[in-house]
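thread: overnight batch results

M.L. [08:02]
morning all. the overnight job finished for the chain we discussed friday. pasting input first so we're all looking at the same thing
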Amino acid sequence: MKQQCRMALAVAGAFPTLARRNTRYPRRRLPVASKMKAVVVTGPGVLRLREVEDPPAITAGEVLIRVAATALNRGEVPTEGTYSPPEGSSPYPGLECSGTVLDVGRSVDRWKVGDQVCALLNGGGYAEKVVVPAMQVLPIPQGVSLREAASFPEVACTVWSTVFMTSRLSAGETFLIHGGSSGIGTFAIQIAKYHGIRVLATAGSVEKLSTCKHLGADICINYKNEDFVARVREETGGKGADVILDYIGGPYLQRNLDSLNIDGRLFIIGCMGGITSEVNLSSLLARRLTVQAARLRHRSPESKAAIVREVEQHVWPAIAAGKVKPAIYASLPFSQADGEWCKYWKDTAN
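M.L. [08:03]
and the structure it wrote out:
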């Protein structure tokens, strides 16, 4: 990602989505106009502001949100071709948002009209309104603005579900995060330090390394002119990292394995560098290594709900205490979807 940190795309006025259809419950018609504005991907790297149909009326267990802000996520930006959301998801980008509750479905007890919230979405955040399962909605963390809150749900759920829930990273261990100045990286550094973990981060420039250091990384490694495997070994007394979070994929696989401690865990959340790799399996056997991979967007609603509950319990207190801060690179109004948004969308894909 060429720019540092996250980019919050503030929605001045109103903001978009279509939700998955649910035929189990009859739909109520929304007491609003039949059209809304949304950012539509019309071609590779091309975004356009369009008038589209309103979301379907909510059903039981759903919440309708008027979007105040959303955020740009690398995971939803195609490196080639056009935008292709998973089946059943909104046709519009936007994996997280903040805003105000406009309506709630039956069986939704926690949220009410007028509540200010943020949410992990199945897509559709680049619009004036979005329908989301109530179990994927979170309160705005104490001391955080609506704009800032939009930058948290996706990264918080990604990092917590992989590094902590699955890889079981715990206090006193050593954690290596690649791309420390990215959205995932800036969050991972802060939440790991909050939980008493030693953090090593890689980045590709002096400026990005400075960002990692400022956020609390103990060791910062320039992957362009240093061998991160050798550096990790050096900084850990020859042992290696206990957990590694990686989105490079193929080219880094063997090197990541070589950087792990005995009983180390590697979690892969992306394949920006390639999808294939040749691996020496003896490196896994001799040191009892674990390799896992997942994408948050493809998890089931039940899995996402469980992750959101843990994030509120273990991450939101850190944000409220000021120990994890939003790392926002730029904020753009909805009206610039055809211009500046396109620029950042293209930059993120490269």
